[in-house]
Amino acid sequence: MSADKPEVVVRAEGLVKKFKDFKAVDGLDLTIERGMIYGFLGPNGCGKTTAMRMLTGLLTPTEGKVEVLGLSVPKNAETLKYKIGYMTQTFSLYGDLTVQENLRFMATIYGLSGKKRKQRIGEVMERYELTDLKGRFAGKMSGGQRQRLALAAAVLHEPQLLFLDEPTSAVDPESRRHFWEQLFDLVEGGTSIVVTTHFMDEAERCHRIAIMEAGKKRADGSPKDLMAAMGANVVEIEGANLRDIRRKLLGTDGIVAAAQLGARLRVLVKDDIADPEGFLKAKQETGGASLIEKVRPTLEDVFVTATGEGRQ
Amino acid sequence: MRSLSRIAAIFFKELAQLRRDRMTFGMVIMIPLIQLILFGYAINTNIRDIPIAVVNQDRTAISRILIQMVEATRVVEVIERYDTIEEAEAAIKSARVRAAFILPDDLAQRIVRSPATGFETPPSSDEETSRPVAQWIVDGSDTMIAGAIKGLRNMPLSEMFRQAPNRSTPTFEVALLFNPEQRTAVNIVPGLVGIILTMTMIMFTSAAIVRERERGNMEMLINTPVRSMELMIGKIIPYIFIGLLQTAIILGLGYFLFNVPLGLRPFDLLVGTLLFIGASLSLGLVLSTIAQTQLQATQMTVFLLVPSILLSGFMFPYEGMPLAAQYIAEVLPATHFMRMVRGFVLRDAGLLDLYRDVLWMCGFFVLGLAVAAFRFKKRLD
Ligand SMILES: Nc1ncnc2c1ncn2[C@@H]1O[C@H](COP(=O)(O)OP(=O)(O)O)[C@@H](O)[C@H]1O
Ligand SMILES: [Mg+2]
Predict the structure, then answer these.
(1) What is the mean pLDDT of each run of 10 residues along chain B (381 residues)?
(2) Ligand 1 centroid to A213 CA: how many Å?
(3) Same structural domain for residues A91 and A13?
(4) Which regions of chain A does DSSP assign to beta strands (E)?
(5) Within a domain: residue A302?
(6) Which site from B7, B61, B102, B225 is most exposed, i.e. has the minimal number of CB atoms within 10 Å?
(7) What is the pTM of this model?
(8) CB pair distance less than 8 Å for B12 and A56
(9) What fold does the segment set B50-161 form as a domain?
(10) B240–chain A Cβ distance below 8 A for any pair
């Protein structure tokens, strides 16, 4: 069964989804390899959920081909469903059932029974700290607790591939950190994960990310490679009238983007300019600046260069 | 095996949700209970005590006796007395009374010549003798009330003269095979099972799929390997038990409160009821795959409920309806159940006697389930 364990878990070519005349996903190509956490990074409405729904067979692509775990989707979506787990963006288990009832329901639906079912439910409740909450109604739990329950339900049947749609959007930072540790545990156990997010710090933890904007993929690679290949150096400017400086700098030669972050202005300077610090200091637009220094790029800078943000 | 346990999982899930929805659970019991008491006591097609006015232009002892005789039939009750016909008509118009009984001033003469007295009178060849004794003015808008008063037209007057009642032989003899005392409840209560089941069964299931969507559970559910048919079957099983419970409440109370017989065919009754429950549930499921919101589902239920009450034969005889209405009625499961349940309970008929309705109901159930499962797509688009 080599088709069962391909090295590539998701392959998509020219994926398009139209809602009436609106293209929510526009020509997406993807290759996701086994054993990694692959992130879709992008603002709300850029088509992350739509893309993920096409990969799991919930939406029929308007154009393009999808193959997940060697199965063509949506044709073989029903077979695929045993092998994948899916955590929806909004909590979608039953609020009027308890933790244990929800898990038992999901386990049975996925074909687990008897001892095996009991054992798996025990395991995931232990692992995701749900044992003390097992009699609680899902609808009466906090965001973090619900998220753990949703993850537990998604991995009950030990799927090879896990789709997580903005799993941490309703969760406090502490729980988010904890959640990501659990994702790495799963990857260590052999699971591949596709996750969407609009948080930079989460995207930075992924092995590979696709930066999305308005239905299109703008960049694709590991965060480190993307930062290296950004084609720009980052210079921070401190001082008065940063808004003024930004407005004047934008549109001049050699400047890719400029964005204000608190008391600093982050300016992306094209990397064919050898000395970006000197380049900026020499410009008369930066006259009012008190400090100009080159800093390490972050994923946010990659995002800004890859998308239209910070250009106007 | 997997299919069975998945159906069981859905069944237990629905049951747990239903059990926690106190309001709905209460309605399951209260709807048949309250409706039975309301309908059982309220609906009566043997009309009695219609309020009438009397315009007595005669004012002799004989007119008073005649009025007493009319009142003694219990069909009408005199609540007003007027001097003129105009006043009586005004009272009918304003709905104070439903009819007026007008006694002319030559009442005594008319009575003597009337054949209704049973005297040996000359054949009524001339105008004098063929005149009626008195006159009724009736609000004809309600045909049932008008019919009841029309029934008084040929009231015998022989008692007035302490004669033996007219012993003339009727043209036809009528023997009543079932419900000899002609009690309305005997016909209404079994029919009520059909109405209550139509209402609750379709209402519950029409919301079944929509609810998953509205509460946001649908995306998760269609991401699992559950099959459409498993989902449909798992969702209707809990309501089969509810339907049987409601049937038991209605027929049981009907027996104790209204003395409605239960029939001698419990098995046929059970099978017939199960078939009807199945047909109603599968119809509800089909609606559920059409409706986008629970409100729409409720509207569709009402859309089906009204013809089920009016056309199924529950209130008005099927045979009295125009052909087009009969065709519509024939489509509704309630019509077939109405025949079945009245047959089993009142006429001692069996499944075999009513095989056409049985077959139709089976077909409806299977087709409905198949259509619902086919229409339910595990897709979001
Ligand atoms: N079923 C739908 N019908 C019409 N438009 C939709 C539908 N689903 C999503 N969209 C639109 O497609 C775009 C992408 O949505 P989505 O994939 O949910 O974005 P994201 O998950 O990145 O926030 C949005 O503009 C959204 O309004
Ligand atoms: Mg989304």
Answers:
(1) 90 92 87 87 79 90 88 90 92 91 87 72 56 87 86 78 63 79 81 90 88 91 93 92 93 89 88 94 92 90 90 87 91 93 88 93 94 88 80
(2) 12
(3) yes
(4) 8-19, 22-33, 37-41, 63-68, 71-73, 84-87, 161-165, 192-197, 208-213, 216-221, 232-239, 255-261, 264-270, 289-295
(5) no
(6) B61
(7) 0.83
(8) no
(9) D-Maltodextrin-Binding Protein; domain 2 (3.40.190)
(10) no
